[in-house]
Amino acid sequence: MLDTPRPAAPAAPRPARSRRPRTPPLPSLPARVGAAARRLHAATPPERDRAVDALRAWAILGVVLGHWLVTALVVPDGSRPVLHTASPLQYLPGLAPISWVFQTLAVFFLVSGHVTTRGRLSAQARGVGYGPWLRRRLSRLFRPVAAVLVLWAVVAVALLLGGADPGTVRTLVKLALSPLWFLLVLAALTAATPLLTRLHPVWPLAVVLHVDLLRFGFGAPGRLGWINLPAGWLVPFTLGAAWTRGELCGRRAGWALLAGGAAATAGLVVLAGYPASMVGVPGATVSNLNPPTLAAVTFGLAQCGLALLLREPLRRAMRRPLAWAAVALANLSAMTVFLWHQTALMATTATGLLAGRLPGLHTLPDRPGWLAARLAWLPVFALALTVCWAAFHGWERTAGRRERRAAHPGADDASHPRVDG
Which residues, 6 or more positions from 221, have their beta carbon under 8 angstroms from its beta carbon? Predict the structure, then answer.
C-alpha cells in the first residue's frame, strides 16, 4: 500500500527579536566641513568687513607662493650636500611677471595700516592707553617668533656639530629668518601709529623719490637707500590710515592709484632703467626690494588701488560660508604660515636629498622645465607647511586669545579671526 502523506507539523513560532535602534550614519567629511563653515558664517558679526580679511589672506598667500616659486636651493653635481640659493629670475628674466603677481607686501601694509589705525582709535574710545595697547600688539607679533628662533638655533648648532658646511648652514638660517625684517618694519610703524594717523602718503613717497634721485642720479652711497625701508612701506601703511578716515571709499581713488601707479612703474622700468622684477634677484646690481626703490613703491600703489577696487566683489564673495571659512582660517594662522613657510621649503629640500638631486628641487633653475617641476612640488611644500602649522600654531592662537580677551572680554575666538597687523 502506498503511504498516505501526513500533513506537516506546524512550525513553532520564532521568538520575536528585539530591534535595536539603528545608529544614524556619520555625516560625510564634506557635510561636516559645510556645517562648520555655516556655523562660523552665522557667528561672525554682521558689521565685520570681511573684505579686509580676504585682502590680508591674499597678501599672505602671494608672499608664500612667491617665495616657493623663485627660491631654489641648488646642490651642485657630484658634491656633498652643499646648498646655495638661486632664482629662476636670475636665468630666465622673462619670468619677471611672476614677481608682479606674487609680490603682495604693499597690500599687507595697506591692510595693516587700516586695521592698526582703526584699532588704536577704538582703544582710545574705550580708554585704553597707548602703552597697554602697544604691548598687546607687539606681543602678538613677536610671540610666535620665539619658536622659530629656538628651533633654528638648535638646528644650526646640530648641523655645525655634525660637520655640515658652514656656508650651507648660513644659507639655511638666513633663509629661515628672512621674514623677520618684515616684522621689524611693521612693529616700528605700529609703534608710530598715533603719529601717522594724519600723515599724507605723499610725504613718505617724496622721501623715496629723493633718496633714489640721490643714489642713482648723483652717485650717493648705496647705504643711503636703507632710508627707503621704512619710508617705502610707510606709503601703503598711511594709505591704510586714510582708508580708516574714510578718504578712500569711492572707486575713483582706487582707479587713480591703479592707473597712476602702473603708469609710473612702467615709465621707471622702461625709461629709467629700474629692474622689471619686483623682488630681489641674486647677482643683480639693483634690487627693487632690498631696499625698496621708487619703482617698488609705485608698483605698490597700483596694487593698493586694485585692492580698494576689489573690496565690494570680495564682500559679496565672503557671503558664501565656505569662502569665508577658508579666509578666516588663513587669518587665524597668518603669522604661523608667514614665519614657517621657508622652513617648510627647506625641510622638503633636505628630505628630498635622500633620493638624490631632484628636478625642480635641487637643480639649477636655468630652464623653463625647472618651473614646471617646481609647480609639481608646491603641494609637497604645502603638506610640510601643514605639519609646521599643526606643531606651532598654538603659539599664535595663545597670543591672539590674550589680546582679544583683554580688549573684548567674552569675545568668541572662532568668530573673530584677526586681521590686525
Answer: 215
Select from 223, 230, 187, 188 the least CA-distant residue to 207.
230
User: Which residues have CB under 8 Å from 41's CB, separation 6+?
Assistant: 321, 324, 325
DSSP class of residue 213?
I
Q: Is 372 exposed, middle or buried (0-12, 13-18, 19+ CB in 10 A)?
A: exposed
Sign of the alpha-carbon dihedral angle for 104, 105, 107, 108: positive
Cβ contacts of 349 within 8 Å, gap of 6 or more: 73, 83, 361, 362
Which pLDDT value is given to residue 414? 38
Instruction: Tell me the mean pLDDT in the region 24-49.
Output: 81
Residue 399 vs residue 197, higher pLDDT: 197
- Specify whether the CB–CB gap between 334 and 143 falls below 8 A: no
Using an 8 Å Cβ cutoff, are 341 and 144 in contact?
Answer: no
Q: How far apart are CA 347 and CA 295, in angstroms?
A: 34
- Can you tell me the distance from the alpha carbon of 88 to that of 230, in angstroms, rounded to the nearest whole number? 28
- Report the C-alpha gap between 102 and 82 in whole angstroms: 28
pLDDT digits (tens, 9 = 90+) for 94-132: 999 999 999 999 999 999 999 999 999 999 999 999 999
The model's confidence at residue 1, banded by pLDDT at 50, 70 and 90, is very low
Q: Which three cell numbers stand for residue 41?
A: 558664517
Secondary structure class of 408 (helix, strand, coil): coil
Q: Which amino acid is at 321?
A: P
- pLDDT (0 to 100) of residue 342: 94
pTM above 0.70, yes or no: yes
What Å distances lie between residue 324 and 32, 330, 332, CA to CA? 16, 10, 12
Contact 297, 33 (CB under 8 A): no
H or E segment and range at residue 46: none
